[in-house]
Amino acid sequence: MLATDGSPEAEHAIGAAVMLSEKLGSELHVVYVEPMPDPVSWPEARIMSPSLQGDIREQAEGAAREKLGGEAEKIRKTGGEVSGAHAVAGRPDAEIVRVAEDLGAGLVVLGSRGLGPIRRAVMGSVSLSVVHHSHCSVFVVRGEDRLPGRILLAVDGSGQARVAAEAAAEISASTGSVLHVVFVMPTAEHLYGPHFYSDEIERSVRARAEGEVRAFLDEQVGWIEDHGSKVEETHTAVGRPDAKIVTLAEELRVGLTVVGSGGLGGVRRALVGSVSDSVVRHAHGPVLVARSAEEPGR
Q: Is residue 248 in a domain?
């Protein structure tokens, strides 16, 4: 499902959505949400009568239908086929999530709203809210489409990282893109805990951890290549996972970064601070946050 608002960032999202729907053989639905304030949030002095609220909603839905027609035409001009068009009014993030769930969408594609480095550090964007609350994977498009190209997959051994690997392998195989896989190891203080060890013991623990990471990456590569994709290179890094993923993606000039959602359930998705949130905020290119519809805790 493509969520569009007619902005320049949404233009890039159209290209990505059309490409993915064609390569993956998926239906493409498009939704346009005309913003409308939530009456519950209005001050008491501004609460309007139900009939007036209904008139405002009707006008907003009419505007959404008109603008949706233009967006659907843009998709058709790029060679895409629109399987369904949905015009709604309300809070954009909430309506995008609701329509996607009603449709049983497997992927939501939307623009990043072009946030710069400072604004990306501030919460509140539609795209980040959709990432938090969507029942399915979310593809946040930023900048020009670089696929086919390189795809960076971040893995950590979690269940949602396996979902991310499945998504990355499928997109890589269908677009002819090559995969890079990264695992970020914890820093020494996280690895050893609040204890002091001799240099010899620390080297031994680090060597063991590095060996386990190499074995894990080899297993991931084997699984991915068994599923028809090609891994060009694996990478290990030490430090904060979000920062290392963003830095490596920029160094490799990847066309897409794929991360797991962290397995957040309905309540935990309302909390800020996960690796995927930070990667979406700070990445210079498109990010796919992979989430299984069967995710525990929903």
A: yes
